[in-house]
Amino acid sequence: MIPLLFSLLLAWPPGTGAQQDKLMPFVENLDADSNVILKWGFSEVQGTIMFQLTVKTTGWLGFGFSPNGGMAASDIVMGGVGPNGTYFMDYHATGNSFPLVDKKQSYTLLSLNEVDGQTTMTFLRSIQSCDQEDFHITDSPVKLIYAYGTSDDIRYHANRRGTKEVNLLKFMPRSRPPDINYLDFVVENVTVPAERTYYHCKVMKVPKLNGKNHIYRIEPVIEQLDLVHHMLLYGCPSSVNQTYEKKCYTEGSGEDCIRVVSAWGVGGGAFELPEIAGIPIGGQNNDEFYRLEIHYNNLAQEAGRRDNSGLRLYYTAQLRQHDVGIMTTGLMVAIGWGYAIPPNATAFHSYGLCNTSHFSDILPDPVPDLSVFSVALHTHLAGRKVQAGHIRNGEQIDFLGLDENFNFDMQQATNLGNIKTIKPGDEIVVECTYNTTNRKGITQLGLATTDEMCLAFVFYYPAIPVTSCCSHPDMNAYTAMMGKTVDQDIEEMLKTAVWDQSSTAVHEATMKRVPQIGFIIDVNKNYTMYEGNIRNMTTTLSVSCRSDPSLQAGPLEPFNYNTSPRGSSSWVVTSVAGSVLLMLWMTML
Question: Among the listed ranges 12-21, 335-344, 362-371, 404-413, which one has the minimum average pLDDT value?
């Protein structure tokens, strides 16, 4: 079966670049004069990566992967448009000599054309190939090599060659606007209490900017690395008109500020947005006050520790094409609703639902297609796996995010290898897998690291006012299905239950089967509620390599092969923004 990605490209005529940008969102100049330009995108679900090499020449092109930047032991493709048509071949080099043709041709040519003095070659391959003559692409930087000629007679390239090291699966674009401006949102000399978990909030006013600007880069400013677990910055509505600083989730600590602007968490670094989109700041219709939230994880419960951490936001007056939005999806953190994860479970599953067909219930304007470029997955200490499934017309068509080896200390926003489109009416189902074999009591939803969450933060454009789209199981329906009376204390019932393998399995299946109560909330705290159901998602397992990329099932086909997502294919933003759900729920009470 030909994958959907492959068949779409075969159907496109040359020059449909705007459509291809969705599939190949990353661009890098391989030479200093911009004569050699590489575009690429990848699908971890399909296990394939697509390249488009454009060179200012009418001769042959060569591109490859090298262990050291030279010819020896490199994996190479060469092609061009000759007098008798196109040519394209997979090679490998054994030394500084003409490369040898591979016995197995592991690259699939998608298009090759020559227009206005430049040649463009688009091709597909597996991320990890079973062919020993091919280079295995990983989430580490790789040395890319290129060469080209002035004719279709493939011979020595002279100085028309080069190499550049690029991380293909963890690529982060770097903007260089002429106006390097930034704002620091930091706390000053905060005393961290001798408590294991403490949330500190500071509402501050942004300096007046000359009209609307776009944030394009976010950097952490961390003083106490062993204390600061995560930080979030929220935009505030016009109802917030004064600064203050105190413990979070107390009256007047900025509960009205619910628009997530940026975030950082342990293990993360800087985050740079794609070049066509930015987070709006300044101007008449944008926030004037912002709320910084810092989660301090004082494991030793030391007294007298002080901190001056925060976030640095780089902005530019050169506006980009789109405003970026960040939407929280998954399981609603609703304390007191009786959600419980049993102890001694090796793989307990929790679910959250977002049905976008209800966006129009609270939005006055028609809802556009949303282009998703990044997703951050989040659970706490018991989390082992998180996946965000993309559902259309009742069937799963893709994963928006997938981490089969979740690491609580390295929670990075997954850089999608191609832009994924959420259409009105699509659903997002977030599934989390927990291991509680080291726990003796139930685990509930909440802010502490020993509590749990199940969330996916979706980074997209163009921005719409929706800030949260989550759900919670209908616990009244759960009580009825379990043969209990509604007036019984559900939390007490779950705490005192006898949990074994059988009762845990029944509990998990019932929690998935009961209706979901969905909540959609916008930046002004308007909300709508609806009822929905959790749909089944594809099971994925790990595999070390793929054979022929042209024979893989596409996302609209049944997934009858194994996948091996690299857990950190990412721009290095960390979004441990789970506490936003609790805050949203509190503001609705």
Answer: 12-21
Shared domain for 488 and 378, answered yes or no, is yes
Is 122 within a domain? yes
Q: What is the mean pLDDT of residues 134-163?
A: 89
Rounded distance between C-alpha atoms, residue 202 and residue 522, angstroms = 22
Residue 294's H or E segment, with its range, is strand 289-297
Could you tell me if 39 and 51 are in contact, meaning their C-beta atoms sit under 8 angstroms apart?
A: yes
Q: How many angstroms separate the first and last alpha carbons of the chain?
A: 52
Give the lowest-confidence range in 17-31, 281-295, 299-313: 17-31
Q: 213-221 and 271-272 as β-strands: parallel, antiparallel, unpaired? A: antiparallel
How many other CB atoms are found less than 10 A from the CB of residue 546?
23
Q: How many CB atoms lie within 10 A of CB 438?
A: 9
Per-residue model confidence as pLDDT tens digits over 441-494: 999 998 888 889 999 999 999 999 999 999 999 988 988 888 775 555 677 778
What does the angle CA 474 – CA 477 – CA 481 come to, to the nearest 5 degrees? 140
With respect to residue 551, please indicate whether it lies within any of the assigned structural domains: no
Catalytic residues: 199, 378
pTM of the model: 0.77
pLDDT of 68 > 60? The answer is yes
Tell me: do 310 and 329 sit in the same domain: no
* Radius of gyration from C-alpha coordinates of the chain: 26
Enclosing domain of residue 76:
26-166
State yes or no: cis peptide before 368, omega within 30 of 0: no
**Domain end (from 493, 512, 538):** 538
Give residue-wise pLDDT tens across range 481-492: 887 755 556 777
Give the integer Cα–Cα distance in Å for 146 and 121: 13
Which of residues 321, 354, 377 is at a domain's end?
Answer: 321
Question: In this structure, are residues 545 and 104 in contact, taking their beta carbons and an 8 Å threshold?
Answer: no
**Residue 473 and residue 353: Cα distance in Å, rounded?**
10
Instruction: Count CB atoms within 10 A of the CB of residue 105.
Output: 15
Q: Whole-angstrom Cα distance, residue 129 to residue 307?
A: 48
**Measured between alpha carbons, how far is 147 from 230 in angstroms, rounded to an integer?**
45
Q: Using alpha carbons only, what angle is made at residue 329 by residues 372 and 250, rounded to the nearest 5 degrees?
A: 125
**What does the pLDDT look like over 87-135, one tens digit per residue?**
999 999 988 889 999 999 999 999 999 999 999 999 999 998 777 788 8
Closest by alpha carbon to 577, among 216, 227, 170, 261? 261
CA dist 88 and 19 (Å) reads 24
Provide the domain count of the chain: 3
